Write a sequence for this structure.
């Protein structure tokens, strides 16, 4: 578990980070006992740290008794260079795509073996969306994730291919199939998905380059891609090139 600390005599800082690390995309709200177990800390220690973090606004506690990440963490996260620089520079281009398509638009980067969503502009309510700005999703089941995975170091690709998880009946979980898809992404310059993360949602994404380096992925989520794929790819490429020029200064 991400937040687990089992070393005797661990510092206060490491214990605080163990508590914060207990939260993830699938564990957004935790009871005290769940928080204690996932952090690998004694219940009394967890209770004391959680109470202090609630007082500081780092955690919040619902009426149900569950703890969630507080607004202060989100506010601090927005100050990170990867958030402020890329997100702000890309914003006009994301809004241009959104205005032209009225579809959900994503800007994302890779963090380890997951997609980190820097921005999400929500489109049609008829398309199911599970992403959120600041949230993380698997690389292998999202359009932006496949772009980032295709251009990730070999070690990252190997780690992802060795632990593919089925999310819907259409999620690609055969390593040889995903490897072939990633090769096409590198060759064609874009990635697509269909019902792989959420049923009823398809996506298309392209890389954002700073020079020769892929620094992010830009994507759109729509009900289906059969008619508009090339038009959406063309629009995304124009926007990605614009972001790349701005990043290059």
């Amino acid at each position: 578990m991400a937040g687990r600390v089992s070393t005797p005599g661990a510092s206060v800082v490491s214990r605080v980070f163990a508590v914060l690390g207990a939260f993830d995309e699938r564990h957004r709200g935790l009871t005290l006992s769940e928080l204690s177990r996932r952090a690998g800390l004694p219940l009394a220690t967890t209770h004391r740290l959680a109470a202090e973090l609630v007082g500081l606004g780092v955690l919040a506690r619902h009426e149900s008794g569950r703890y969630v990440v507080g607004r202060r963490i989100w506010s601090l996260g927005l100050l990170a260079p990867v958030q402020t620089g890329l997100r702000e520079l890309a914003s006009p281009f994301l809004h241009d795509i959104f205005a032209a398509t009225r579809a959900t638009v994503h800007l994302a980067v890779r963090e380890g073996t997951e997609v980190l969503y820097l921005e999400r502009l929500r489109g049609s309510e008829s398309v199911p969306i599970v992403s959120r700005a600041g949230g993380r999703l698997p690389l292998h089941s999202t359009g932006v994730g496949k772009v980032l995975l295709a251009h990730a170091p070999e070690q990252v690709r190997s780690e992802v291919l060795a632990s593919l998880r089925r999310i819907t009946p259409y999620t690609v979980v055969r390593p040889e199939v995903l490897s072939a898809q990633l090769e096409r992404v590198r060759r064609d310059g874009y990635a697509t998905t269909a019902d792989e993360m959420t049923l009823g949602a398809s996506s298309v994404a392209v890389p954002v380059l700073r020079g020769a380096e892929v620094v992010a992925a830009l994507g759109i989520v729509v009900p289906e891609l059969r008619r508009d794929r090339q038009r959406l790819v063309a629009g995304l490429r124009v926007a990605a090139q614009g972001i790349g020029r701005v990043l290059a200064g």
The first helix runs from residue 12 to 21. DSSP finds nine helices and eight strands in the chain.
